[in-house]
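Lab notebook: predicted structure, single chain.

Context: the supervisor wants predicted structures on file for every construct in the current expression panel, including those that have not yet been purified. This is the next one on the list. No modifications to the sequence; it matches the entry in the shared construct table.
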Amino acid sequence: MPPYRTRRNTAVLLAAAGALVLSACTAEKKGDATGPASGAPAAPPASKAAPGVTADSVKIGITYPDLESVKAFVSIDHGDYEAAYNALIKKINDAGGINGRKLVPVFGKINLISPAAAQETCVKLTQDEKVFAVLGNFNGDEPLCYVQTNKTIAVGGQLTAKRYAQAQAPWFADQRGGDEVGDGMALFNADNSLAGKKVAVISNVNEQAVMKETVVPALQKMGVTPVEAAVLDAPAQDAAAVGQQTGVFIQKFQASGADTVVVVGSMGASFPQVLEQTKFRPRLLFTDFQQVQAYANGEGHDFSTLANAGALGLNAQWSEATNQECMTTIEAANPDAKGKLTVDPMSLPAGTPTPQVAPNAACRNLTLFKAIAEKAGQELNYETFQNAGFGLGSFQQAGFADKATYAQASPHGALPARLFTYDAAARKFVLSTS
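Prediction complete. Output recorded below exactly as produced.
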């Protein structure tokens, strides 16, 4: 999902809509795991194939979540995905396209409560429409249907080392699916602050791979062996079960003498809500600051849970020029959005609709695709596209303060994780100056 999320917990929404979560809870003593292999990744095969490319056009697939399908579970507003993409594509085409080729979009919205919907959309775009590349919103392993099974270029999604190793076609993204946490964990240990601490770790079942393969090994590398490692796998839509099982874990953490808890991914929005109902106050370290910010934006909480808390995240910057240019273009094409999209969604009150999410996703995916395709030159095929992506180098991605770096070793752009610390007076996480 995009780095700019609604105030509601998108990760929990998707888990609830899918209704695929198990209903038991587990806790593990002293988690052990093996981290991903180091070194530059092998490049996926890239032939001279060029599906969807003609002398004057390039057909691209675009996926996005059908939020109407989850209205029964939650009300959420990302804005209009198709309108956002169409406005940006029109601007590209009106300016002559990409090396003289106009973009022809084929949309595939994904019903979030249908387990087969993502697969069906993949088949439609790759086998029926035979697009050159697919851009957009992918969850979990969904990109593998494109880059592995159907050998089609993907732009977007969570590009982890493990998934990328399975790719059979070029794949570029600006999200690393938790791999960046491994690099950022050292920020939690500034001035050797974790020395002598008893650390527990918690994740939900959908993100346990990040915990086991990234977080725990990073802690062990720093000389910290977790005293407890817990995985929450209660149904996300069952708040009572989530609360009860989280409470059990908190009791285990306290009994083990833990004074620090690393909270992985989307657990950042729910774990403090249960913790505040107890007297236990360990230092909390979150791997995703936007998830815990959703908690901090709420009302009626005991925010003593966040005292001395830290969180990792990408340094998003809504005022970044490329992003603002996109938002202005989309507003101009959609009068109903006038004056709404240029506003930083993180500045809005809790519960406020955030129609900026879809435009930001469209901007980021199209900006990256356009840059790579332009660099590929007039002879556009899978080989030239991949080589161009590997040679893109330093790149200003829309909506980020830090520049990405695209090379064979970093098809994900290697946006660096930054440390954010909780500011009690402002009631939000702010970029650390240390």
